[in-house]
Design a protein that fits this description.
This protein has a six-stranded mixed beta sheet with strand order 7-6-5-8-9-10, sandwiched between helices. It is globular. It is built from seven helices and ten strands. It is α/β, with parallel strands linked by helices. Helix 1 packs across helix 6 and helix 2 packs across helix 3.
Length: about 210
């Protein structure tokens, strides 16, 4: 999913430095799903660092231009994909929309906020991809609106096999600036973790639902 390994290392290092990514094997984090995890990734923190925010925007724009050409619309996935999507759309001079997690229960009941037209090509922007469920739900909504999805670009992916299979089945090409393997590698290089932590971190990614269960 990541093509430029030097870029992937730099993005991972930046996220670690600003503590957008936290690693703690002994006191794991609990995700909204209830899953216990030794890693917590909050890429929204990068928005508070102008240089890193700009770097991420520039690299996303370059990735889109190099790999997908020029789409008609940029779409962000609510909520964390919205700010990065806006930055990318502004840079490219393109219309922007965002896709909600669910339809509004008031007003117009929109699922897609903004204007998309039948036949338009879209690049979807995410901040991170875990299982891929919410990301692909946004893709489905855009397809139902008549859009053609050229691909999805995200800052980070956990590279879960279930997500990889889901994207393959949905025929969506996902490209990320960095990923879990690169992050762990950089965390080790920069002494955020020790060599003895690696085995546990690899085991979590392979079977996250069973990790830490005794």
């Amino acid at each position: 999913m990541t093509g430029n390994q030097e870029l992937a290392k730099k993005v991972a290092e930046n996220l670690l430095q600003i503590k957008a990514v936290k690693l703690n094997i002994n006191q794991p984090f609990t995700w909204a799903s209830g899953l216990k995890s030794p890693i917590y990734c909050d890429n929204r923190i990068a928005l508070s660092y102008p240089k890193i925010r700009t770097f991420i925007r520039q690299e996303m724009v370059k990735l889109i231009s190099d790999e997908f050409g020029s789409p008609d619309v940029i779409a962000g996935v609510a909520t964390s994909g919205i700010p990065y999507g806006i930055l990318v759309a502004q840079d490219l001079g393109l219309p922007f929309v965002y896709v909600r997690q669910a339809e509004k229960n008031h007003g117009l009941g929109n699922l897609i906020e903004g204007i998309v037209e039948d036949g338009q090509s879209v690049i979807v922007i995410e901040d991170l991809v875990s299982t891929g469920g919410s990301s692909l739900k946004a893709v489905e909504a855009l397809r139902k609106a008549g859009c053609t999805i050229k691909g999805m670009v995200a800052i980070f992916s956990y590279n879960f096999e279930t997500a990889n299979e889901a994207f393959k089945e949905a025929k969506i090409r996902l490209l990320t600036l960095t990923d879990y393997d690169t992050l762990i590698e950089q965390a080790l290089v920069n002494n955020y973790i020790s060599q003895k932590d690696i085995e546990s971190l690899i085991a979590w990614r392979q079977q996250p639902e069973k990790w830490g269960v005794k």
